[in-house]
Amino acid sequence: MKRAICLILTCLLLCGCGAKDTTFNRTLFCMDTMMDFRIWGSDSTNAANKMADMLEAMEEDWSASSDTSLLAALNDGTADLTQEQAELIAQVEALSVRTGGAFDPRLYAVTELWGFPTDDFHVPTQEEIDAALLERRWDLGAALKGYAGERCVQIMERYDVERALLDLGGNIQTYGSKPDGSPWNIGIRSPFDSGTIGTLSITGTMSIVTSGDYQRYFELDGQRYYHILDPKTGRPADSGLSSVTVVCEDGLTADALSTALFVMGLEEGTRFYQESDDFEAVFILTTGEVYATEGLTLTGCEFQVISHEN
Ligand code: ADP
Ligand code: MG
Q1: For residue 184, is pLDDT > 50?
Q2: What confidence tens digit (pLDDT) does each residue in 172-182 have?
Q3: How many whole angstroms separate alpha carbon 249 and alpha carbon 236?
Q4: Which long-range contacts does 148-153 make (Cβ < 8 Å, 24+ apart)?
Q5: In terms of C-beta density within 10 A (0-12 exposed, 13-18 middle, 19 or more buried), how is residue 110 classed?
Q6: Per-residue DSSP letter, 175
Q7: What is the pLDDT of residue 228?
Q8: Which pairing describes strands 24-30 and 33-40: parallel, antiparallel, or unpaired?
Q9: Out of 169, 196, 297, 301, which could bridge 201 as a Cys pair, Cβ 3.0 to 4.6 Å?
Q10: How is residue 138 annotated by DSSP?
Q11: Which of 35, 211, 213, 228 to mutate to test the pocket of ligand 1 (most atoms within 8 A of CB)?
């Protein structure tokens, strides 16, 4: 029996930032991933400390695996949420409705059944899956890092940060602009090897989030089982995609949509894009073909353009 686990800590590679003008760099391990901050500004150290504290508190509150977290209380119906926390849950629920349930923040029992949180992998029976789908236990794993990026932006605004490039475990949050007005260059990781498939030019404050079949998976009898589940089946989403990258001003939306579009696949994802006006996306098919929506500047690869008009 062949088993392998691959947890890629960084799914987007950062490029194009000379170290010369970096004023502050910080790395931390949080939310089960490595995070890397590059911050320019006079009060960068305090901003970074504040962001690290906020991220650690957020991880504790919203831990799906802990019996004592706020999320555990939410499962039990005993949670006493602050206004901010209640707003987060309301936004998450709205994103689930908006995506027709493709983004489903209450699949933790199913995720656990497959063994993803503990690396104790198991291919469940349909009976087991059906029972786990009914549990409806909360899991913000597909959205929390994006929301965290948004909260980091609020902190950086308070600390007069000039500009920053944050890598929250593959979720990229840009902040501000380079003094010469040139864009941030964000490499999109190839799902097939350790290189990049192309580079996005990003202007200003933006969230760039990727969901991929290579981020967390195990293999059994030649089949790859990965951590993004189709809520309709309780099995890894089999949509013909290897990754989806979403670019959106709102971090939470970017993160939830990257997972949802991965579940939907190219065709349904294209329709969803055409009905929306708040994000852009890059779809990489399992065949290696690349599709990018018309509002993006993507260089370094061949791709087909998805336009807003049908
Ligand atoms: P990552 O967190 O690895 O960057 P995603 O943002 O796509 O990738 O989130 C995947 C995680 O979200 C899974 O590990 C699981 O906890 C949870 N999840 C899996 N499938 C779904 C789904 N369809 N909707 C919402 N959450 C999901
Ligand atoms: Mg996501």
Answers
A1: yes
A2: 999 999 888 89
A3: 28
A4: 148/31, 148/54, 148/55, 148/58, 148/251, 149/173, 149/207, 149/251, 149/254, 150/207, 150/250, 150/251, 150/252, 151/54, 151/58, 152/51, 152/54, 152/55, 153/205, 153/251
A5: buried
A6: E
A7: 98
A8: antiparallel
A9: 297
A10: -
A11: 228
CA 105 and chain centroid, separation: 13
pLDDT at 226: 96
The bound ligand whose nearest atom lies closest to the alpha carbon of 243 is 1
Confidence at residue 22, expressed as pLDDT on a 0 to 100 scale: 53
Tell me how far apart the terminal alpha carbons of the chain are, to the nearest angstrom: 47
Alpha helices in the chain (DSSP H): 44-61, 70-76, 83-98, 108-114, 126-135, 144-158, 251-274
pLDDT of residue 160: 87
Domain ranges within the chain, ordered by starting residue: 9-69+85-306
Whether residue 107 has its Cβ less than 6 Å from ligand 1 = yes
Is 84 exposed, middle or buried (CB count within 10 Å of its CB: 0-12, 13-18, 19+)? exposed
Domain 9-69+85-306: top CATH class: alpha beta
* Of 213, 277, 283, 290, the residue nearest 248 (C-alpha): 277
Which residue's CA is the nearest one to ligand 1's atom 4? 211
